[in-house]
Amino acid sequence: MRRALALLPFMALLFILPFRGTVALRMICLAAALLVVVFLWRRLAPPRIPCKPAIGGWALIAVISLAGAVDPAYSLGEIKNEIVYTMMAFVAFFAVTRNESDLKWLLLSLVAGASVLCVGAIQSHWQFGAWQERATFYGGTGAFAGYAAAVAPMLFLLAAYTSERRRRAAVYAVFALVAVTTVLSLQRMVWWAFALETLIALVLLKRGGLIRLSRTGLVSSIVLVVVLTGGILLAVQQERFNGYSDEEIARHSRLKFWPSVVQRIAEHPLAGAGFGREVMSKADHDLIPKDNSMLWHPHNIFLDYGLQMGVPGMLALAWLIFCLLREYWRFCSASDDKLKLLGIAGLMLVAGVMLRNQASHEFLRDASILFWALNGALLGFGRRKLKQLGPNGVA
Fold this sequence. Notes:
Helix content is about 70%, strand content about 0%. Helix 7 runs antiparallel to helix 8, helix 12 packs across helix 14 and helix 14 (about 300-330) packs parallel to helix 16 (about 365-390). By secondary structure, it is mainly alpha-helical.
């Protein structure tokens, strides 16, 4: 009972994160989760927190960017939102997730929230004939795509950790809900994120001896994933731009927009305009295309970081991603099958979310808290399990 109460704010946070209008409740859950961890720190006895140098470098460069920030008050607020709050979630989930049971409860709460959100979005689309971007509890299409890219690897892990057929079937049903909702969102890059996550799973499951698949079967599966993804993308593209002229479609292209952003970063490679996604519209307003005001930020997380913090910011982000991937790769090399599955899911999570944000930048607010909370839970359980296996636990 005590353990269930301790996990309650964590589960509530994962459930409500994607829903619009829950900011105050999120902060209450996050604060409660952190208080639980502080109060129970000795009893939880967490292992050493991973990726500390990379996290510290990322935070330090963000703070240094305040010196040249076009709007220091705004950038300071964004540092609080995107670094302080997310690290609170990361540390709290890392410390509290001690065993497989804890991880399953957290994943179940995430799946419950995803189910409610998807059912609401599908019902609304059926009623109104289109995705309602505003005044809805399930949020916009861009935010949903980032959420789906993070949820899919967790569904994979929950299914892999579930032995009962009925419960596993329920997980598959939720994945179908997520897939249908993603189709309705008419987002494109998320399908490449799904494809990358699937390919990572296939290759590493075969590498770890977790599935029986010949080389021919693996190659055939990879081709099937790529072809299927391409087909879905063509259908989504046609539906999204149905009735648009070639000129109107061209206005939505990031490829024509990005060179000017790269050039601006090259002009000031060591400094940016301050931390926060809105700095381009504040400091580099001339970069916004006159025929497409929607491109008020670079729509690429690395280019966005370049405008915010210069090349050092881009390198800090790359270092952070590399450190996370390295942690999960260690799990993939373990002798324990469940730890291998955990590592695969972690690699899928990081790779999928980062790929999704190469054609947008939704890595903020609820999406960034979710990303770091999930990484905290996976790494917290994984590092404990790796420690139990001892020095012979990694091949």
